[in-house]
Amino acid sequence: MAKTLAQEFTKGLWEEIPPFRLVLGLCPTLAVTKSVQNGIGMGIATTFVLVFSNLLVSLLRDVIPSKIRIACFIIIIATFVTVVELLMQAFAYPLYLQLGIFIPLIVVNCIVLGRSEAFASKNKPVYAIADGLGIGVGFTLSLGVLGGVREVLGEGTFYGMQVFGPSFEPFTFMVEAPGAFVCLGLLLCLMNLAGSR
Amino acid sequence: MGDIFVLIISCIFINNILLAQYLGVCPFMGTSKKMETAAGMAMAVIFVMVLAAVITWIINTYFLVTLNIEFLRTIAFILVIASLVQFVEMFLKKSIPALYAGLGIFLPLITTNCSVMGVCLINIQEENTFVQALISAIAYAIGFGLALILFAGIRERVMLGRVPKPLQDTSIGLVTAGVISLAFFAFKGMV
């Protein structure tokens, strides 16, 4: 255990920040980032699932037979996704409607399964929580940034507030499907530029 | 008959699962570097997606709804898809080895392909009848295959060009996908 808890946490914020460094979990990234609010909401839901599934997988890592581990991980993850779904239905209903089928689809978000397999199944619970939290916060930040760029350009608002004057013509391309792909591609390019220095 | 035609066209082109609904983007980026892998993935998805949509529809209608346990839908669906993929893999290995050799490595990847689960959920959400669910699953799967194969063709060409270093690989791939998505966007006014 060479790394400290803080290192496990912060690697999710830059070194391995999803979805830029780990190119996983692209579907929710593209689909829900029409606005900052949706992006962050999705990020928080994913973080919740990541932290708790990492914790449980890590606690059970000696009990789960390695042959059927993937199936076990998926059941654990699906359980927490159901918890999140019900929680959001109860406490954040408008957001729940906005995110739609992408909440149940957290189950098949490769980031969550990837962390269970690559990290939580080999490390102590405390480290697994730090890892899940770091990756989750990194994911939330990425979604927030992507959502911010798309919302400001596509709607002329940021978190629902007007940023430009009334003469601003919204760049609708950005909030539609093609804009999502192009925007993520260009952000990835910027990240590569910043990282290569 | 006319309704079915509209449904097919709208699922393949207008609501294309990849380019308009953003489902299944991970395998889309992962398997599109070569035409053969793209074609293999497309075939595997068509196969599994149709089976999964039919089975989850039956389970949802006759099991989850009648027993009032719809909140277990996520768990039930993912289990069905995961075991279906396993089962299909074993079945093909035994009885159609030629097809297994072709699809082989792509089958296990499909469990985490969100387009399969997505189509099952869309069918439930739109309250499709059995026939509608079956047809839209086939059409969505064809749409996925079409987009994947088109994209692989373009990506092979792009790899030959001189791409600036920071833009390489996934980055230029996403921008290319954006351009194809723009082309599919033009279908939006059709129906």
Helix and strand arrangement:
The complex is a heterodimer of chains A (197) and B (191).
Chain A: H1 5-10, H2 26-31, H3 36-59, H4 69-91, H5 93-99, H6 110-118, H7 125-155, E1 157-158, E2 161-162, H8 177-196
Antiparallel strand pairs in A: 1-2
Helix pairs in contact in A: 3-4, 3-6, 3-7, 4-5, 4-6
Chain B: H1 2-14, H2 25-30, H3 35-64, H4 73-95, H5 97-103, H6 106-109, H7 114-125, H8 130-160, H9 170-185
Tell me what the structure shows.
The complex is a heterodimer of chains A (197) and B (191). Chain A has a two-stranded antiparallel sheet. The model of chain A has no long low-confidence stretch (mean pLDDT 85). Helix content of chain A is 64%, strand content 2%. Chain A has helices spanning 5-10, 26-31, 36-59, 69-91, 93-99, 110-118, 125-155, 177-196; strands at 157-158, 161-162. Chain A has one domain (5-196). By secondary structure, chain A is mostly helical. The longest helix of chain A has 31 residues, at 125-155. In chain A, α3 (36-59) runs parallel beside α6 (110-118), α4 packs across α5 and α4 (69-91) packs across α6. The longest helix of chain B has 31 residues, at 130-160. In chain B, α1 (2-14) runs parallel beside α8. With 191 residues, chain B is mostly helical. Chain B has one domain (12-170). Chain B has helices at 2-14, 25-30, 35-64, 73-95, 97-103, 106-109, 114-125, 130-160, 170-185. Chain B is built from 9 helices and no strands. The model of chain B has no long low-confidence stretch (mean pLDDT 85). The A-B interface holds A 23-27, 30-31, 70-71, 74-75, 78-79, 81-82, 85-86, 100-101, 104-105, 107-110, 113, 176-186, 188-190, 192-193, 196 and B 19-26, 29, 71-75, 77-79, 82, 111-114, 117-118, 121-122, 125, 165-168, 170-175, 177-179, 181-182, 185.
